[in-house]
């Protein structure tokens, strides 16, 4: 796959540099706030919780900012909440608020702030310091989102290319040394504290390296559509706060025991906060009383010092994941167990790595499809008519490429060819039903929204101005992801083919545990579980759909061979 241009690489390096600087400024603001004798996290939380709900939503935080004459858009406040939201409900409970306001690099100052007890009101000094901290967080989110949009607008940019650029030599993880090397290559000075700050922000699972999912979650733009605060948001892309946020040492040497404790080695759920599990805060909606908070927080801090974190890694994910769709970052961030439990067979570890990335690609695309489904002016017929200018009821590859160009996408012919090989099963023509499979989310709740809408059926010369600007932006994003996913999938196939001793038949046998010549749903799930990768039922269903061409509920060797065999003469 082609590398990034020099200007795009420098913009990517700027993203890391801004992240490090922003985290440094925010940490200094946390220390200044926590050192103030009048600051009590519980009292501050209650002061912002206007209606005594036991949580803070974006309106609570925005109201506090406006009171202190700090402007922030709804999207910026929402990004701030996502950074610290432990259970993906777009709300901050007391433990989340503690992570936001208490320092990560000084256990003593953090403990001192937590142990304070005072009136449930904010002094003028504390209100000023807290508003300055939130202002720095908002400013950082604003700057990062601007860089994300500039990267996305670069014609040569893709998240996969960016990850490959930094991940050299390739290991499927971006380590602190690779970040150092990448920044040095682009003439950006960085120190250990800077890398610590980057990892605190981006490293979700606390293993001091960035998986592809964590990297993607950090780099991708927020949705351009209006932020909707509803239960449906739980299935959208989220950025969880890193466990390193709670790390007492900025240089990772003093907290080596924390990283190697049972906290990182036990099973992780994709939706529950490890802080909640260890602190005894059972309710994801209600905050504890002061006594519960103080006792749990003290126990948490002690456990950091003694490496006593033994909670399951967010266990119970399979049951919860049936009702919510985790993002790609949540799946791939759990893959730190992959290397630790790697099997002796190279084929098995290689094919599991492919499964991880394929599931991640499907998750990312599915999240964008759901965002698109929420746009009230989007209909499948109007979208299809952008490509089917002649009203034939099908679209050829040339017509599809012309439609993409009309949307501002400059496709590589080979990527479109891969897309047609995947979805256009009849005469290499994309029918309306094929197009619906490409664009429609598999979530019935969202797909019903699209199916119930009436198309505009505009005349031919107006079809390419069908949707509102935000809707068109999301539609373009889905189209780009489709092309990128096909490109990445082909890259994975060619990587397997280039492995000197990789055997497809042995890889198939590694998945086919009962040796009956077929791979079933349960065998996919068991293999991934053996590597510490806990996936939802929908994830495995998507994986089955990718391999099970005849839809008989099992994958034969010929179907498996067909999917992992390269399909393009172009080298990726």
Brief sketch in words of this structure:
By secondary structure, this protein is mostly helical. Helices cover 58% and strands 2% of the residues. The chain folds into two domains: 6-225 and 253-336, no CATH class; 364-482, Recoverin, domain 1.
Structure in words:
The model is unreliable at 224-240 and 248-344 (pLDDT under 50). It is built from 29 helices and six strands. With 572 residues, it is mainly α. The protein has two domains: 6-225 and 253-336, no CATH class; 364-482, Orthogonal Bundle (Recoverin, domain 1), CATH 1.10.238.10. It has helices at 6-35, 41-48, 58-67, 74-84, 94-101, 107-115, 124-153, 159-166, 176-185, 192-202, 212-219, 256-259, 262-265, 274-279, 290-306, 317-321, 328-333, 336-340, 346-373, 380-387, 397-406, 413-423, 432-439, 444-451, 469-498, 504-511, 521-530, 537-547, 557-564; strands spanning 173-175, 209-211, 394-395, 430-431, 518-519, 555-556. It is globular. The longest helix is centred in the first third of the chain and has 30 residues, at 6-35. Helix 1 packs antiparallel against helix 7 and helix 1 (6-35) crosses helix 10 (192-202).
As residue ranges, the low-confidence spans are: 224-240, 248-344
Percent range for helical residues?
55-70%
**How many strand elements?**
6
User: For the report, how would you describe the main beta sheet?
Assistant: 2 strands, antiparallel
Helix/strand class: mainly alpha
| Arithmetic mean pLDDT | 78
Instruction: Give me the number of helical elements.
Output: 29
* 3D shape: globular
What spatial order of strands do you see in the largest sheet?
Answer: 1-2
Share in β-strands: under 5%
What is the number of independent domains? 2
Distance between the termini: 4 Å
Radius of gyration: 24 Å
